[in-house]
Structures are given as structure tokens and as C-alpha cells.
From TrEMBL, chain A:
It is a multi-pass membrane protein. It holds the Pfam family BPD_transp_2. Signal peptide: none annotated. PANTHER family: ABC TRANSPORTER PERMEASE PROTEIN, HIGH-AFFINITY BRANCHED-CHAIN AMINO ACID TRANSPORT SYSTEM PERMEASE. Its main location: membrane. This is Branched-chain amino acid ABC transporter permease. Keywords: Cell membrane, Membrane, Transmembrane, Transmembrane helix. It is found in: Cell membrane.
UniProtKB/TrEMBL annotation, chain B:
It comes from the Bacteria. The keyword Ribosomal protein does not apply. InterPro entries: ABC_transp_permease, BCAA_transport_permease. It is found in: Cell membrane. Belongs to the binding-protein-dependent transport system permease family. LivHM subfamily. CDD domains: TM_PBP1_LivH_like. This is Branched-chain amino acid ABC transporter permease. It is a multi-pass membrane protein. The keyword Transmembrane helix applies.
């Protein structure tokens, strides 16, 4: 295992509990706290635009983590994740409209979405691989159609306006304050996922991925864990969607199309299948890449290339092409994603200058 | 009840369904030969139709010259895709391969929008007679032509897989790659050929749809409508794909009819096949003609 080789020598595990900690070394714990403290200072340093990017990374990262639990850890594929993300957004907006405080509406939306995910996960208990991919594709279209039709739930094609997050009378209505809400949720959800992966259930999910027949022989209930991982993935998607809803303050059907689902899959693949932190890296990559495309297009503005290719008016298409190309290139050249790159970089500095 | 409308819709369903069948066959061809589920099948239609449209309107070529050139281009396109993208992924898990084709799909969809814009472009009129009367129904002659073409392609497939050397090699590869290889079949060549044939046949379907209703990015939705068809027919059965396509075409027009007459839900023509898809997956996931996948450890 690549991760184990990076432990410092002399750090012996003397108890089972010590072997099962989420953060293996003292340095990793210190780095975590420093990182969190730096993130808490971010609103003092960054402008609103940079903060909005960070917020996007936050809620997309939560939903991508859910998909990674499904795809990366359980080995079940889903091409309908955006529909569940959208369901969470609509559910949270709906709860807020009914008078539920927003702070409570977000987890409620997560739970409701988890139940919807369980319903769609039931066929998934019997399916795997490409059949499941096709079934979730159907789920994507059916849910999208439902959003457009159910006016009581989603406001139909007109969309649904919702309100700001508030707690004890304090309104988190600006980037500087809402950032902390998303940060708190992201930390909770990521720690929960890391914790899940060292529990019995988490190991059962990985066993289902690695060889489902052997897992079944060892007493793991396949149908139960496949459905469960769908539920967990939908829960994460619902929370992410709810955070999105109370940030944008307007939820509309068009946002949750199949392209968005594919973007979630791209995040998971680019970040690294089966890596908790990789989901966050993938989300960051997907949020920052359009910025890079845009600034590249701006750098070329007015030049001959710009005029010949009509770059200014086709940024959206360039962005989509970049997503498609990123998926393919990562699959061919770095199938383990950014998470593996990151491990290699860490190993390089740890072993420097005797890296061989 | 309006019998005339129902009958008209059934004929429509049959014609569209035959096209679905053609696309589904080319999808199954790739799946059988190289075990790749191609989510970019719709983009083959899209690229083919746009290529033909561009040759006719921008290069001012006559149709009889532009069409073969477009098919030649699609042959190369299919081979290049297989060699550059899919070949490095041989042996990777199913999820990776599926995702690679999904990536291809959004890449080419965006590329086509970038190159040709988002608006539907009509083909220049190719055939003189617009409508013919058939059993008391007015049918557009292009539709008849498309039905004829679909049947012709289906017969072509049947001949190819039953009598030609390459078709037999392809079936042998689908049956067992190692045995086929040991008998002198070049498996990489078979893979490339299956992608080329699939791209060409899909492009024919794309051009037909383009002639009927204009070329637009909506064409790539055919690639998604193919899934209900192939699942219904069984993923690895060419006959099943054909029948599945026709059934889905008729089914969606029937749903449209029910919707227009009684339900008034709207959009059923696009969603009904997916409800059917979920049902089939629940009841009979291997479809009507698919082989049951029995796993031995």
C-alpha cells in the first residue's frame, strides 16, 4: 500500500484502536488543524468572487463525495447524481417555504433525498456495471421530467425562490458569512465519510466493489449494501443540493441536467476513485478549470486566433469540451486521479533527496 | 378515438423505430465485438450528419458525391476513436470504459455546437416528390426512403455476419477472443473494424434524420433513446436490437397518443421509453434475446 509506506519509521501501532485512527500520524493531525484554521481566515483575505468559488467547491465537493462512496468505494455507477442533487435543492427550498428553519431544512432535505435514493437504489440491488449505468440514466430523465411537471414541489419550469440560511436570528446572507456554513458542513460530511470507511459497513462496501461474489460468500448482504450505498450517496447529494439552494436562492429545473451529472462523475474520476480527499480535489478541479479556460480565452482576446475561432462567444462549449477531454485524458493517463498525484508529490518530498 | 391519427402515429412509430433499430444495431455491434458500452453512439449520428451537411452546403458538392465522402470520413473517425481512446483502456474496469465514452459524448457534442452553432440547419431538398399516398395515408417520401434504407441496412448486416469473412471473424471474436486470436483473427483489427462499421451505419441514420427534420444537436438524443431499445432486445443480440428499436418507436408514439387524448401530461414521447426501460430492468434485465450472463468463479 502506497499510503502505509509513508509512515515514519518507529511509529508502531500497539493497539487496534491506534491502527484504525482516521489520521495516522501526529503531523497529519497538526496539518489538518492548521489547514482548517487557514480556511477560517479565508474571508479576511479573499474577495467575494474567490469566496464564491470556494463555496462552490464546498457544496459540489460534498455531493461528489457521495458519488465517490457509490462509484469509488462500492463500485456501482450512477449517471443520475445531478437529479438527486436537484432533489435535495428542491426539498430544502420546499421545507423552508413550509416554515421550517433553514438550518433544519438542510439535513431534512438530505434525509428525504436519501429515501428517494433508496427507492431508485432498489433496482440497483440487482444490477451492476453497465445495466446500472443505464438504469440511473433513466432515473436522471424521469426525475428531471418530474421536476418540470410537479409544480407543487419544484415550482415547475418557473423555478422556486428560497431564503437565506439563518441561525439564532443571524442571517448568513453574504459570501463572507455563508462560507462558514458550507465549511462546517463540508468538514462534518468529510469526517463522516472518512469514519464510515474504517467501520464494518465501509469495509463491506469496499468488499462488494472488489469482488462481489467473494463478499457474498463471506456473509455480506449484497442487496443491502448496494442499496445502502445508494442511500448514502443520495444523502450527500441532498445536503450538497440544499447548500446550493440556499446559496443561489433560486432553484430551477434546467440546472440539473445530464451534463451536470456527468460533471459529478468527472469530479470523482479526476479526483480519484475511492479516495475521500480526492473528491474535494476533483470538485476544486472542476470549479477552477472553467476559470482557467476563461482566462486563457481572455488572454487570446483580440488576437488572430480569437477571430478565427470565435472564442468569446463559445466559452460554454469550450468548457464542456474541456470537461470531456479531462475525463478521457485522466482515464487514459492517470486513472487514479489527482489523489495519487498528491501522494506521489508527498512521497517525493518525504524521501527527498533519496527518492529511489 | 381517432383511428386515423392512431394509425398515422403507428406508421410514424414504425419508421422512427426502424431508425432506432439501425442505431441500436450499430450499438450492439460495438458491444458484441469489443465489450464497450458506447454512450457516444448519438454523437456518431451528429458528426456524420454535420459532416454531410457541411460538404453539401459549404463545399457545394452534389449529394451523391458528398454522401460517400461523409461515410469515408466516418470510417476514419471510428477507427481513430477506437485506436486513440478505447485501445489504451482495454482491460480497465467497466466503469472506466463507460466514462471514457461519456467523455467522448460531451466532447463531440460541444465541439459540434461550437463549429456549427446551436440552431437546427435544414438539408437542401434532395428528392423531388414530397408526399406519396399509401393505403389512404399521406406519407413523406423521405420517410419511405428511410424505412427502405433501414431494411436495406438490416439485410446488409445479416449478410455480413452470415456470409462474409470479416463478419464471421467478428462473431468469432465476440464469442471468445482468445480462441479467435489463436485461429488467426487479428483482434485489434476486428475492434477497429467494428467501430468503423458502427460509425458509418450510425452516420447513415444521422443523415436520414437530418434530411427529414434538419441537423441539430438534438440528434445525439438518438444515442440515448437507443438504450431502451437495446435493453429490451437484449444487449448482445442484433435481431433483438432491431426489434427493440421498432417496439420503442411504436411505444413512444402510442404514449404520445394516450397523452394527447386523455392524460395531457406532455413530454411523454421522450419519457415513456425510460419508464419502460426501468420496468424491463426490474423484470427481465437480459431482454428478449440477450444471453443470460452466468458467472462462474
Amino acid at each position: 500500500m502506497a499510503a502505509a509506506s509513508q509512515l515514519p519509521s518507529g511509529d508502531f501501532r500497539t493497539s487496534y484502536a491506534a491502527d484504525m485512527t482516521i489520521f495516522p500520524t501526529r503531523n497529519s493531525r497538526i496539518a489538518l488543524w492548521i489547514g482548517l484554521a487557514l480556511l477560517c481566515l479565508a474571508p479576511l483575505v479573499f474577495g467575494r468572487y474567490e469566496l464564491s468559488l470556494l463555496i462552490q467547491i464546498g457544496f459540489l465537493g460534498i455531493a461528489a463525495l457521495g458519488l465517490n462512496i457509490l462509484v469509488g468505494f462500492t463500485g456501482q455507477i450512477s449517471i443520475g447524481h445531478a437529479a438527486f442533487f436537484g432533489f435535495g435543492a428542491f426539498a430544502s427550498a420546499g421545507f423552508a417555504k413550509l416554515g421550517v428553519p433553514v438550518a433544519l431544512a438542510i439535513p431534512l432535505a438530505g434525509i428525504v433525498t436519501a429515501f428517494v435514493g433508496l427507492v431508485f437504489g432498489l433496482p440497483a440491488a440487482r444490477l451492476k456495471g453497465l445495466y446500472l449505468a443505464i438504469a440511473t440514466l433513466a432515473a436522471q430523465f424521469i426525475l428531471e421530467d418530474f421536476f418540470a411537471r410537479a409544480r407543487w414541489f419544484s415550482g415547475g419550469v418557473a423555478g422556486q425562490v428560497t431564503e437565506n440560511f439563518s441561525l439564532f436570528g443571524f442571517r448568513f446572507d453574504r459570501e463572507e458569512t455563508y462560507f462558514y456554513v458550507v465549511l462546517a458542513w463540508a468538514v462534518i460530511m468529510y469526517v463522516m465519510a472518512a469514519n464510515l470507511m474504517r467501520s464494518r459497513d465501509g469495509r463491506a462496501l469496499v468488499a462488494v466493489r472488489d469482488h462481489y461474489l467473494s463478499a457474498e460468500v463471506m456473509g455480506i448482504n449484497l442487496a443491502y449494501y448496494r442499496t445502502l450505498s445508494f442511500g448514502i450517496a443520495s444523502f450527500y447529494a441532498g445536503i450538497g443540493g440544499a447548500l446550493y439552494a440556499h446559496y443561489i436562492l433560486f432553484v430551477s429545473v434546467e440546472a440539473f441536467n445530464i451534463l451536470f451529472s456527468i460533471q459529478f462523475l468527472a469530479m470523482v474520476i479526476i479526483g480519484g476513485l475511492g479516495s475521500v480527499m480526492g473528491s474535494l480535489m476533483g470538485a476544486a478541479f472542476m470549479v477552477l478549470m472553467p476559470e482557467a479556460v476563461q482566462s486563457a480565452a481572455q488572454a487570446l482576446q483580440g488576437g488572430a486566433l480569437d477571430r478565427a475561432l470565435n472564442l468569446g462567444n463559445s466559452l460554454n462549449f469550450l468548457r464542456e469540451m474541456a470537461i470531456g477531454a479531462a475525463i478521457i485524458l485522466f482515464l487514459i493517463f492517470e486513472p487514479d486521479g489527482l489523489a495519487r498525484r498528491w501522494r506521489l508529490i508527498k512521497a517525493y518530498w518525504k524521501l527527498y533527496p533519496y527518492s529511489h | 378515438m381517432e383511428w386515423a391519427l392512431l394509425f398515422q402515429l403507428l406508421i410514424n412509430g414504425l419508421i422512427v423505430g426502424a431508425l432506432y433499430g439501425v442505431v441500436a444495431m450499430s450499438f450492439v455491434l460495438i458491444y458484441k465485438a469489443s465489450q464497450v458500452v458506447n454512450f457516444a453512439q448519438g454523437e456518431f449520428l451528429l458528426v456524420g450528419a454535420w459532416a454531410c451537411w457541411w460538404l453539401i452546403t459549404h463545399m457545394q458538392l452534389p449529394f451523391w458525391l458528398a454522401f460517400p465522402m461523409c461515410l469515408a470520413f466516418m470510417t476514419i473517425f471510428g477507427i481513430v476513436l477506437q485506436v486513440t481512446v478505447l485501445r489504451p483502456l482495454i482491460g480497465e474496469p467497466v466503469i472506466s470504459v463507460i466514462m471514457a465514452t461519456v467523455g467522448l459524448s460531451i466532447f463531440f457534442q460541444a465541439l459540434m455546437k461550437w463549429m456549427f452553432g446551436v440552431f437546427a440547419q435544414p438539408f437542401p431538398p434532395i428528392f423531388a416528390a414530397d408526399r406519396v399516398s399509401l393505403l389512404g395515408l399521406e406519407v413523406q417520401s423521405v420517410y419511405l426512403l428511410s424505412l427502405g434504407l433501414s431494411v436495406f441496412i438490416m439485410l446488409g448486416f445479416w449478410w455480413f455476419f452470415t456470409f462474409s469473412k470479416h463478419g464471421l471473424a467478428m462473431r468469432a471474436t465476440a464469442f471468445d477472443q482468445q480462441v479467435a486470436q489463436s485461429l488467426g483473427v487479428s483482434v485489434p483489427k476486428v475492434f477497429a473494424m467494428s467501430w468503423a462499421i458502427s460509425a458509418v451505419v450510425s452516420a447513415v441514420a444521422g443523415v436520414v434524420v437530418g434530411v427529414v427534420s434538419g441537423v441539430s444537436s438534438g440528434l445525439s438524443f438518438y444515442g440515448i433513446k437507443v438504450f431502451p431499445a437495446v435493453i429490451l432486445g437484449g444487449l448482445d443480440s442484433i435481431v433483438g436490437a432491431m426489434l427493440g428499436g421498432i417496439i420503442v418507436g411504436v411505444l413512444e408514439n402510442l404514449a404520445q397518443y394516450l397523452d394527447a387524448q386523455w392524460l395531457n401530461w406532455g413530454n411523454m414521447i421522450n419519457i415513456a421509453p425510460f419508464y419502460a426501460l426501468v420496468l424491463i430492468l426490474l423484470i427481465k434485465p437480459y431482454g428478449l434475446f440477450g444471453t443470460r450472463n452466468i458467472e462462474r468463479v
